Amino acid sequence: LFQDADDQLFSPTVLEDVAFGPLNLGRTKEEAVAIARRTLDFLGLNGFEERITFKLSGGEKRLVSLATVLAMEPEILLLDEPVNGLDTRTRAKLIEVLRCLDLAYVLISHELEFLTATTDTVYTMEAGRILLDHEVHLHEHVHAHPLGARPHEHGPLPEDGG
Fold first, then answer.
1. How far is 110 from 90, CA to CA, in rounded Å?
2. Does position 132 have pLDDT exceeding 90, yes or no?
3. Which of 60, 152, 58, 59 has its CA nearest to residue 49?
4. Average pLDDT, the chain
5. 71, 22 in Cβ contact below 8 A?
6. Is 139 exposed, middle or buried (0-12, 13-18, 19+ CB in 10 A)?
7. Chain segment 67-123, per-residue pLDDT in tens
8. How far apart are CA 52 and CA 122, in angstroms?
């Protein structure tokens, strides 16, 4: 899934764009249209079939772009900054979709909140190299203590990772 949906969408209508991949994978026109409709329905985009792709909102384009990829039934997804510029509703929809997929995916993102909501494991990279040789497990917690209103540091993590 490209970072910019405009780089991915090229057909006049949403249905044509989503059916393009299955057609090029050898499906009949009827099969491709059925797959496209099922995929759009899965993403909550039923009724979008005849909409003009370049007239969609940014979030709609991102979801239609995801539909074009999912319609090809990939073994793995690679998503580059998938929530960049998305409104709260579309972002939540994308998180919901990713959580429902029975499919491996690799996300490239700088947004830890999004990664926490959609992944089990995070690897950090810099200049094309993995910085850590172990998995980083994101978590969130809220705590209160007397220093909460002032900048402070926490002690070292226990050796057992707990």
1. 18
2. no
3. 60
4. 85
5. yes
6. exposed
7. 999 999 999 999 988 888 888 999 999 999 999 999 999 988 888 888 888 887 777
8. 37
